[in-house]
Amino acid sequence: MFTLDKVRGGLTDVVVCSFRDLLENQCYNEIYEAVNEFVQDNPSSLDCSTRCVQSPDEEATQWFKIKCTATLDNGLHNLNTKEVSLYTKYDKVQKKCLSDTLVPIIYKEELDEMAEDFLSRYYPEILKQPMAIDPEELAKRMRLTIV
What we know:
alpha+beta, two-stranded antiparallel ribbon, two-stranded antiparallel sheet
């Protein structure tokens, strides 16, 4: 589980367990405003139909895709909403997606390509001559510190 310690949320501290939680606790208003503006500007594009009508006051749900940029440096800063659009289950899957915990999502059919790309950046000689990878050398080349 991914934990970002605590984020200041009003009068209380909120423990954040995922990036989704961080966005919800820190950026809800900005995201809400962007979606609300999209809805106001594009009311006819919304799909507010339901599959089975049970009562006249039945609610419909609409999902949205929101493309944003932000700085992740000891917290989330400078959130900038780039685009809001309707989400459908038929949308093409985006490459280079991240999970809720900011772990890259790699599909089985992409594993060889991703591994080759990784090795070509950090251990290119292994692609020419099979050998064992020295984990300390790999960490050094990735500019990581082993503790």
